[in-house]
Structures are given as C-alpha cells and as structure tokens.
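Final report, closing paragraph on structural work. Over the funding period we assembled a curated collection of sequence-structure pairs, and we close with a single example.
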Amino acid sequence: MSKAFTREDDTGEEPVLPPPVSVLPPGAKNYLTAHGAGVLRAELARLLETERPPLVARMDDPDAKRELQVLDRRIQYLQQSLRTAEVAMPPPPPHEVVRFGATVTVRERSGSLATYRIVGVDETEFGADNISWLSPLARALLNARFGERVVFKAPRGLTELEIAGITYE
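Its predicted structure, as stored:
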C-alpha cells in the first residue's frame, strides 16, 4: 500500500516540534519590566506545578503526549526568556523623559489621547496598550520629553504625537 494512504501516526513516533525561536533580533537585549518578569515567572511556575504533572501521568494517551510537547516547548521558551532577561527598573522621579517601562500618554493632532506602555517583547499583548520597545512607535517615543512632539510613521502615513504624560509603575 502506498504511504499516502496511511495515517502519519501509524509509525508510533510523535512529530518533534522545533525549538522555540526568540523574537528578538540578533544582539538585542531581552529587557523586561519587573512586573513582566513576575508574570512570566508565575506562568512558568503554573505550567510546571499545575499543568504538566497531569499530562505526564497520561503519557500513554497520544493526545496528552502532544499537549505535553507543546507545553514543554512553552516552558523551554519561558526558561530561556527569564535566563536572558535584563529587568529594567524605572528611573527615579521626575519622570520627564520616556524610557523603557514608561506608560506614555500621547495627544494626536485630532486632540484625542492614547496611552501606551513600553515593555519587553515577551510582555506585549495584542489588544492591550503594551508595545514592544523594538516597535516603530516605541522607538519614536523613547527619549522624548514631556511636552515634546514626535513624528511617527504609522501605516496610514506620518503622524505627529505630543507627549502629554509619562508615568512608571
């Protein structure tokens, strides 16, 4: 019978997932805020202490094996991220310059306000206001001073933003 008509899992071997790849460009530091490092440590502890043991107990179940492989990959990624992390502490007051970890309120030309928090690549969240320090918006905001206007190249074109507030956790 042709191999095309057999199921892949008939071989009895589980596919091996490739190791996780860092989203950091080569040579970039893995900055994290203190809060972000705590969140990653808590996730790692939860995975190791709560989620992994039941899967290990069901190793004879092929679904559990696959779930364990995915879980172990996440654990490996978190361990690597925390091992290479540089936790950046907020600068002392006054907070008049945008640095890593800052929550920045900007005023757009229309007068509307938006708030962004500049965080490490492993702290970014889709739909949240956390943006990676490597993102184009964060790069435009970093080192700007309170009241300063910065130009940011947005997908819709050049946008001018005024720094209306700078806070740190």
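The helical segments are 34-57, 62-84, 136-141. The longest helix spans residues 34-57. We thank the funder for supporting this effort.
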